[in-house]
Amino acid sequence: MIFGQHHRIVFMGDSITDADRHRVAPYGNGYVNIVRNFMVARYPHYNLTFINKGVGGDTVRQLAMRWESDVIRERPQWISVMIGANDVWRHFTYNAREAVPIQEYQSTLRALLQRARQAIKANFVLMQPYVVIAEPQHPMRQLMALYAGVVEGLAVEFGAALVRTQAAFDEAMKHLPPSFWSPDQIHVGAQGHTLIAQAWLRAVGYEF
Q1: What is the pTM of this model?
Q2: Which residue among 89, 146, 196, 206 is the one 20 to 30 A from 99 at the CA level?
């Protein structure tokens, strides 16, 4: 297990991380809350602190705008980041002007990680963005794979734990259809959040 005693972990991301955290305070009703419950139950002696800073609708641009207040100011030892769904999804919607080109996505996310590493010596758990589409040739699936590749590259660059979220859904979709996991190809219910949490826990060395 990669965390130490009394470590603080900030979760940054979009609506998947947010998971109604303002209504179901402070962790939301998604994967962050599930991760916290499992970690506290398994490692109560570590006295870990979990902080959910997800905001629905965010792209990496919005993350950059609030990185100082929501991350650096919290001074965590670890930052978990899952961003990219909106950056990609908006290429395929009415507000395509808000989509983030992959070069900007990469350079912005790298700059944020560099800032946290330099300012507070933070470590990272990087979560690949995903789409709940089974067909490999689907245009959004193909584009999301490129953004997920950026995250994998940054995980190597920064020595981060990598959460292979898409791979987790790909395995799950072999047994149950995409509609079981997501009504809109991105957002998930309790079972999908549990799948994400399981992938996260495996990536950080949780002892099941």
Answers
A1: 0.96
A2: 196
